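Exercise 7. Given the components listed, write out the predicted structure of the assembled complex. Treat all entries as one system.
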Amino acid sequence: MGKSVLLIIGGGISAYKCLELIRQFSARGIKTRCITTKAAEQFVTPLSVAALSGEKVFSDLFSLTDETEMGHIELSRSTDLVVVAPATADLMAKMAHGLANDLASTALLATDKPVLAAPAMNVRMWHHAATQRNVARLKADGIHFVGPNDGDMACGEFGLGRMAEPAEIVAAVEAMLSPQTKPLAGKKVFITAGPTQEAIDPVRYISNHSSGKQGFALAEAAVQMGAEVTLISGPVSLATPMGVKRVDITTADEMLVACEKTKNVDLAIFCAAVADWKVANQAQQKLKKNDKSAAPDLKFTANPDILKIIGGLKQTRPKVVVGFAAETENVIENANAKLKNKGCDLIIANDVSNGVFGSDKNLVHLISAKGVETWPQLSKAEVARRILEACAKLLK
Ligand code: C5P
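Answer.
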């Protein structure tokens, strides 16, 4: 391949995985030059990093010898890609705020190359509002992410925060290094995502567990493939992917209006978990509970089936229409029925009986008139990429 990576090793227990990462890079012909933070040296020795990479390891911003051999600006630019692994909470905070007080953070600020971060930290640190703010900022700045994964942690806790495995990092690097094909260049795409909320009264609503992650992953991947993307999203707490036009809505009725307003669409993907019903007798004031009154007598009415409406359009129908079918039983049969009923070209069916909501992984079947294709469990980002590749083929 003849490519090179600058690997910035942060100070976390998962730094040990970097030794294997360097080995896997070199097995694929990717040259690795490394920077270690001071904290990283508590976990891996510069000697082992140098032995595996076959290159001098850099760590000191103020080393005259290092600067004469390879200045820090040169170090950050004479590479195809920068990988930060483990991207600790501290390193990401520095990156998000543009701090440059050691060689690692200075190189990250000076680089003009794509950056891939593989976060690793304790689950609570990952979920902390400050870290999530920093991640959102970094994503908006165009930093790519791989992981974190969930599972047992070195600190004895369980959850999100394990660094992605070396093989996953290598796959992400290879995807970033391979010449980008833009199969959706010039195509106009809209994607619905997240839940809708249907008011009961001014303070209460009916909704569902959709996190919006799959829809947002689709929007991000579609932009990377060259599309002009409008993301019509219900209430979610996710950062808008770079380059995406986002339209926020609350109810199914508002989502329909936003979809209808988006004209000349090549591809429409309906990933949102739209509430099937809204409350017909919505109260104008907060419903009161008192000892005598029974539970409120809520009446429901069906929401518009947005997918069916758009899929059934005559002149203005998007060229390709994709629906999702979240099922808890008879996944394939139910999805097949939806393909026809709703006028879709493709249906992405998944079993949501086992914790897909909010997860970073998804296990789906791609259903078209040609039949069913079942994919293994993949990250939502990879599911998004594959769905869009299938759509690009249909658009050809
Ligand atoms: O009928 P069901 O809700 O299972 O269909 C799911 C598919 O239809 C998803 O693609 C969803 O985004 C879309 N949908 C919609 N409007 C609705 C209900 C579902 O666009 N009111």
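Discussion: The pocket of cytidine-5'-monophosphate is lined by residues 192, 252, 270, 272, 274, 276, 303-307, 323-325, 338 (CB under 6 Å). Residues 380-395 form the longest helix (16 residues).
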